[in-house]
Amino acid sequence: MKIAFFSTKKYDVDFFNHANKKYNFDIRYFETKLNEKTAILSKKFDVVCAFVNDNLNRKVLKTLNDNGIKLIALRSAGFNHVDLDTAKEFGLRVVHVPKYSPYAVAEHTVALILSLNRKIHKAYFRVKENNFALDGLLGFDLHGKTIGLIGTGKIGRIVANILKGFGMNILGYDKFPNDEFQGEYVNLDILLKKSDIISLHTPLNKETYHIINKKSISKMKNGVMIINTSRGGLIDTQAVIEGLKSKKIGYLGLDVYEEEENIFFEDLSSEIIDDDTFVRLTSFPNVLITGHQGFFTCEALTNIAETTLENIYNFKNNTLNKNIVV
Ligand code: NAI
C-alpha cells in the first residue's frame, strides 16, 4: 500500500513512523495541504491520508479518483471537510479516527475555561515583568455556577464529569441524548438562558452551522463565557465580535476558528495576517485563542497513528468493519 500524507508536520512523521513499524507501509509525507492544486501529487498512490484543514471538495475528489486512489484515511474524528456525497458517488471509501483521546480535547476545554476565568494568560506576562498587581485579574468561583454543554457525546460528557468535580451545575442539549451524561438535559433555549458558561461539543453539520449567532447570543446571560473546541463554523464570528463589543459576552475561548484553514498549524510570526476578523478577535483582552491544539497530546497522537494505519491495513485485507464514514 502506497500512502500519500498531506499537511504533514514533524510530529506526524515521528508518531506515524513509529506506528508503521508494525505494518511497513510505503509512506510519502507531503508538507503541503491537500487542495485543488496539490491533489495531482496523489498519482501512483493507493491511499491518501488527510487532516482537518485539507479540502476534499468535488474537484479534489475527482483528481484523487482519476489517480486511482481507493481509500481516504482521515487522521481526524471530524469529516466536515470532505464532500461525502461525491466520495460515495465515486466509490471512494473514507475512514476516520472516531475516538483517539476525548480526554485531550475535554481537558483543553477546561484549560481554556480556567485560564480565561483566572486570567492566567495575562498573569503570566505580568509576573515576567515583575508586575505583581492583582487589579484586572479578578475571577469567579466555578463552584455553584452553571455550564451548558451543546453536544454531550464523548468529549462533552468528559467535560461534564470534570466540571462536576468543580461543583458546577451541568446542563446539556443534544439531538440524541445519552444515558451516561452526568447532567440535566434541557432544550437549547433554556441552556442558553441559564448557563454562565456555554461550551460547544457537536460536530459541524447543516443543523449546527452558526448555532451561536446573533439570536442565540441575545438569549444568553450578560457576561456569559463561550468556549469552542469543536469546529469554527459552529460560531458566527461577526455576531460574537458584536457580542464582545457590547459586553454581552464576557469571555470567549476558542481552539478553532471558522477561517482557520489559512492560519492555524503554521508559524506566521513574521507574516502580516490579512484576516481582519481574526485580528479583531485577538485584540480583545477577554478572548483566548489556541491554534487547534485540543487533540495535541502524546496519547492522542499515538492513537491517531495506530488507528489510521489499522484502518488502512483492514481496508487492504478486506476486513474493514469499523471507522467507516462512507
Ligand atoms: P461525538 O460524536 O461523540 O459527539 C457529538 C455529539 O453531538 C453527539 O452526542 C451528537 O448526538 C451531538 N449532535 C450531533 N448533531 C447535533 C445537533 N444538530 N444538535 C445537537 N447535538 C448534536 O463527538 P466528540 O468525539 O465528542 O467530538 C465533538 C467534536 O469535537 C467533533 O465533532 C470535532 O468537531 C471536535 N474535535 C475537536 C478537536 C480539537 O482538537 N479541537 C479534536 C477532536 C474533535
Radius of gyration: 21 Å
Count of strand segments: 12
Estimate the mean pLDDT confidence.
97
Q: Classify the helix fraction into a percent range.
A: 25-40%
Q: What's the level 1 CATH class of the largest domain? A: Alpha Beta
Shape call = globular
Low-confidence stretches: none
- Biggest pleated-sheet summary: 7 strands, parallel
Number of helices: 11
CATH architecture assignment of the largest domain? 3-Layer(aba) Sandwich
**CATH topology heading of the largest domain:** Rossmann fold
Q: Helix-strand pattern, N to C?
A: EHEEHEHEHHEHEEHEHEHEHEH
* First-residue to last-residue Cα separation: 20 Å
Quaternary organization? single chain
Give a list of the ligands: 1,4-dihydronicotinamide adenine dinucleotide
CATH homologous superfamily caption of the largest domain? NAD(P)-binding Rossmann-like Domain
If you had to describe this structure to a student in words, what would you say it looks like?
This protein has 326 residues and is α/β, with parallel strands linked by helices. The strands form two sheets. Strands 8-7-6-9-10-11-12 form a seven-stranded parallel β-sheet, sandwiched between helices. Strands 2-1-3-4-5 form a five-stranded parallel β-sheet, with helices on both faces. The chain folds into two domains: 2-100 and 297-316, NAD(P)-binding Rossmann-like Domain (Rossmann fold, 3-Layer(aba) Sandwich), CATH 3.40.50.720; 102-289, NAD(P)-binding Rossmann-like Domain (Rossmann fold, 3-Layer(aba) Sandwich). The protein is built from eleven helices and twelve strands. 1,4-dihydronicotinamide adenine dinucleotide (NAI) binds next to helix 4 and helix 6. The site of 1,4-dihydronicotinamide adenine dinucleotide has 27 residues, from helix 4 and helix 6.
